[in-house]
Amino acid sequence: MMTPFDLALMIKYLKNKGYTQEELSHMSHERIISLYEEKTRDFILHAQEILETNKEDNVAYANEIIIPESLSIVSKQPFRFYDIIEDYIDSNTPREIANSFFAVLPHIKVKTLEKMVRIKIRQLQETWMLQLNNNLSVLPREERETLMEYFSRHKENLRTLRSMYEKSCDKDYIESLRLIATMKLSIIKDYMPDELESNYKVFYDHSPEKLAIIQEILKLSGAYSKGALLGFSIKDLNELLEELQKREEQKQIEKEQKNRYMEAFKHALHDPNDQVFVHVCLDAVSELSRQSFQEIAMVLAKQFKTFRQRFEDVAKEYGDMQSLQIAF
After folding, report:
1. 140: alpha, beta or left, given left = phi > 0 and alpha = psi -120 to 50?
2. Which of 149, 223, 228, 274 has the most CB atoms at less than 10 Å from its CB?
3. 170-186 average pLDDT score
4. For the chain, what percentages of helix, strand and coil (3-state, to nearest 5) are there?
């Protein structure tokens, strides 16, 4: 429910966007709300563009030539190899680096040098990812996990990974990201909660809430795999769980009904008063599904020789029972 405080916040936000008090005073509450939603959605799209831009470095780079000075340093101090190649690993392939340094390290096979380069790459990837996660820790968890999942999937793109790592070491840059990400999250939570999951899919895909719902679904049905359910939204999962729970509840009700009528028929078959059997038949017809009645009838027919004949006699007299078409 909209409160005066909410409306005041919207008016303040719209003033910051250039609307005057006079303009706003002539607007209805509905118009202010509509305008606020429009402007905040524009902000979210703009914020998303900024955050997405920081995932990729779109500048085109040519392979960086390994300068003679670097080769000279390694030729005199081979132990510097690991330090020197860090300047080239995001602009040259491991084979290119190995071939270049083989000229000054002829006592080491090219394949060995290439392997050493790959080891260095793995080391830097782990270091940059750990530091990125630490530097981005000031961002809302929803945004941080989204960004980290992206970098994890694209960590082979060393240029992008290095670029974002270096940017993340700039406190002013990270603070600007934090402000944008925090405002984006706040707006979506307060005014567009239905869009939370679509904006932060990575975060919600493995949230305790979603995994708990999936576990409940798996307990009730074997028709879905966990992998397939992870592709559902939380809203869809809740709807599916509710449907399965209703089915399970109905199954329990039908089970209890069958057990009750099974006992009622057994009692009626031993009762000398034929009307007791008739009343049980009519009550069962009105309450049980055809399938449930069929299952009971099959069991009773095997246990009691008189059941089938007595049932057919009643069915002839009452048309409702004939429509069940019980087969023995």
Report:
1. beta
2. 149
3. 87
4. 80, 0, 20
Can you tell me which residue has the tokens 């790959």? 118
Q: Which of 273, 295, 271, 270 is nearest to 284 (CA)?
A: 295
**What Cα–Cα distance (Å) separates residue 111 from each residue in 67, 94, 185?**
21, 10, 49
Instruction: Work out the end-to-end distance of the chain between its first and last CA atoms, rounded to an integer number of angstroms.
Output: 60
* Distance from C-alpha of 31 to C-alpha of 38, rounded to nearest angstrom: 10
Own/partner pairs, 249-254, CB within 8 angstroms, 24+ separation: 254/288, 254/289, 254/292
How many Å apart are CA 120 and CA 106, to the nearest integer? 20
What average pLDDT does this structure show over 288-300? 89
Q: Is 277 left (phi over 0), alpha (psi -120 to 50) or beta?
A: alpha
Convert the pLDDT of each residue in 95-114 to its tens digit.
Answer: 988 888 888 888 889 899 89
Q: Is the pLDDT of residue 58 over 70?
A: no
Please state whether 18 falls in left (phi above 0), alpha (psi between -120 and 50) or beta: left
| Cα–Cα distance measured from residue 320 to residue 227, given in angstroms and rounded to the nearest whole number | 47
Go through 206-226 and write b for each residue having 16 or more CB atoms within 10 A of its CB, e for each that does not.
ebeebeebbebbeeeeeebee
Task: Give per-residue pLDDT as tens, 235-247.
Answer: 899 999 999 999 9
Q: Give the residue from 64, 66, 170, 80 showing the smallest Cα distance to 120.
A: 80
> pTM for the whole thing?
0.59
Place of tokens 């530091």: 131
The answer to whether the CB of 44 falls within 8 A of the CB of 184 is yes
What's the one-letter identity of residue 141?
A: R
